[in-house]
Amino acid sequence: MATPARSQACLEVTDLYKSFGGVTAVNGCTFSVRRGSITGLVGPNGAGKSTVINLISGLIRPDRGAVRLEGEEIGGRGMEWVSRRGLVRTFQVAREWPALTVLENVIAAAPAGHREAIWRALFARRALNAQGRALEARALTLLERLKLAPLAQERAGRLSGGQKRLLEFARVAMASPKIVLLDEPLAGVNPVLAEELRAAITDLRDRGATVMIVEHNLGFVERTCDHVIVMATGRVIGEGTMSDLRRSPQVVEAYLGRGAAHA
Amino acid sequence: MFEYLVSVGTLAAITSVIALGLNSRWGLSGQLDLGYYIYVALGAYIDGVLTLPSAHTQPDVSYILGLHLPFLAGFAGAGLGAGLVSLVVGAVALKNLRGDYFAIVTVAATIIGYTVISQYKPLFNGYNGLYGASQPFAASLNLSPQGYQAFYFGLCVVVLVAVFVVLELLRRSPFGLAVKAVRENEIAASAFGKRTYLLRLKAYVIGGVVAGLGGSLFMHYITAFNPASWSPLETFLLYGALLVGGTANNLGAVVGALIALIAFPQLTQLIPALGSNSNAGPAIQNIVIGLLIFAVLLFRAAGILPELTTMSGQLRTRGAWNWRRRATGQAADSAEPAGPVVDPAGPEEA
Predict the structure, then answer these.
(1) Helix, strand, or coil here: A40?
(2) How far does the CA of residue B152 sit from the closest CA of chain A (Å)?
(3) Domains of chain A as residue ranges with CATH
(4) pLDDT tens-digit series, residues B251-302
(5) Sign, CA torsion A100/A101/A102/A104
(6) Which of residues 61-90 of A touch B (CB under 8 A)?
(7) Alpha carbon A209 to chain centroid, angstroms
């Protein structure tokens, strides 16, 4: 019965629960993310959006419930494992590698494969150098698109907050993910950079990735996302396009506010 | 004079090897290991019990093995043994411990190791330690005492160069970049699929192997080793050397070891004895090294040779010299464009 939906779903979250002490942060959350979509995840503060992202990406373990990536169960498997399956995420606070250069940050984000084996560093240097040049060329192309190329040799710790956001996005693109979870990508980003980021997100989708964005800037969400999921008190209270959501009394009550219904 | 210089040179080469091992743990991987010197000691002891004749030949001496093997077996055994112990200790300590918690555990491990080795005589002859270590290759070379001294200096330099080259290849490789990424932000590294625990463990074991090799060279240099040779101060002096020379820079580790652990102690020996206090000399040495660390941290916090960036292809040279701009505090906008520039003013935030 669910076959058509399942074949289209890149990510499925089913009946997810997580509590911290006495606080139930995620309370029976269920949704799916269509392959090739840009899906927004919105909701008031404390709705459990970031916790859901943390549960999906493996940073924390769910108390119960299932997370499936392309049909494979990934819940509770740990971030390293999940990332190698093609699910890459960013964080609310940019987590660059400060002492590495901008270019090194991007190169290091490429899927490791067997490149990082010690014996290769000593005995397969020619192959590594060839791979390294190819990765470097790709990284520079990504940095150019995000207008970070002039800073390629700068240590990442010296970038501004907005530039770190762009760098984080370049790393994500370098990882060639199946699906990307962006946790508040616009925090600290000015409107000009935001448009660049939007173009980059769309571009990533056009290259075959699925994107999920947690974001409070609803204008950005409306312009960028083709599907929006609204969470409140740890569960999904509505989904659809933004105009669908404005007509949902429950969503207006919990999150959008009465003014938005007429916007 | 020749003998003095060769002797100091040999010590310098061995100390540099030992500093390089710590640089792989602390510099490359960021592990604040306060028990590092125990792996040097293990290397010396393991080499000793492999190359010394059986303990039964001497009265009132006891240690394990006593296999009387040639130097190369002792040298390899020292590296392997110290590496194996690193693997076991690291596998436990690095699993869940980070930063200061990890550091405290390494201190505890050192105290336990120190107590066991100095008190449990059947292992490495307790507090008296091992002595009478062989002179590597001396029998087949048949050199004069000075000739042999020069030969051993050469041997230590060869080991130093080999260790340096291997560590430098690792630092520049994708492995080195991944280890540094884990050091810089472990959660971000896991988010990009790095096997953080294994990477940290590998860097820890590499450091242990190098420490063991250094310990083996040290054993045959002074021909004796006992717990007095590895007080906790040794580890701190090595950290001082890395701070002075430049953390995470292999050449910096060697330069730091040469300045802080060789040149300064040797030069301060020239200070005339203060009255009748025979302890003044060593005390002044430590004070001077402490002042040197203060000076470096105040005026050049990244050390004399700060960490290099690793790049392949056309960017390597520029990357290598990037620290100059950083060190001299010039503005970041002097970054050369790498490849075709879209808009040089673009990335600045409005």
Answers:
(1) strand
(2) 27
(3) 3-97+176-262 (3.40.50.300)
(4) 999 999 999 888 888 887 777 666 667 777 777 777 887 888 888 889 888 8
(5) negative
(6) 78-80, 83-84, 88-90
(7) 11
CA angle (B121 as vertex; B46, B22 as ends), nearest 5: 40
Q: How many residues does chain B have?
A: 350
**Whether A144 and B339 lie within 8 Å, measured CB to CB:** yes
DSSP state of A93: S
Rounded Cα–Cα distance for residues B12 and B160 (Å): 10
Measured in degrees and rounded to the nearest 5, phi and psi for residue A65 equal: 110, 170
CA distance B256 to chain A (A): 21
- Torsion angle defined by CA atoms of residues A167, B26, A129 and B340, in that order, rounded to the nearest 10 degrees: 30
Regions of chain A with pLDDT less than 50: 1-6, 263
- The average confidence (pLDDT) of chain B is 84
Q: What is the pLDDT of residue B197?
A: 95
Distance from the Cα of A129 to chain B's closest Cα (Å) equals: 7
Phi and psi torsions of A226, nearest 5°? -100, -5
pLDDT beyond 60 at B71: yes
Kindly identify which residue of chain A lies nearest to residue B184, measuring between CA atoms. Answer: A97
Q: What is the pLDDT of residue B326?
A: 43
- Pick among A115, A151, A182 to test the B interface (most B CBs inside 10 A): A151
Q: Mutating which of B173, B321, B323 best tests the A interface, going by the most A Cβ atoms within 10 A?
A: B173
User: Structure pTM?
Assistant: 0.88
